[in-house]
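Lecture 7 notes: from sequence to structure.
We start with the chain below.
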Amino acid sequence: MEIKGQVTDHADAKAKAAQRWVKAVNRLGQHGAWRYLLVTDPGVLGKALNDYTAAHWDEGQFEWGIAGR
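Predicted C-alpha cells for the same chain:
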C-alpha cells in the first residue's frame, strides 16, 4: 500500500514500477501473495482497504503483514 497526497507524473511511474515488482514477487512464489494499492487520501484508507479486499477476495487468500518482518 502506498499513501500519496499528490499524484504526479513521477508518482505514476513509481506506481507502475511497484506494480511490476508485485507481479515479479508473486511470480517467484516464495513470499506469499502481494497486492499493490495506491491511496491518495489517508482519510479514506479504511474504506479503500475494505473495498479492495471485497473486490479481490475471490482471487486468493489475503495475508496481512508488515514488509521486512
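Points to note: The first strand starts at residue 2 and ends at 3. The mean pLDDT is 83.
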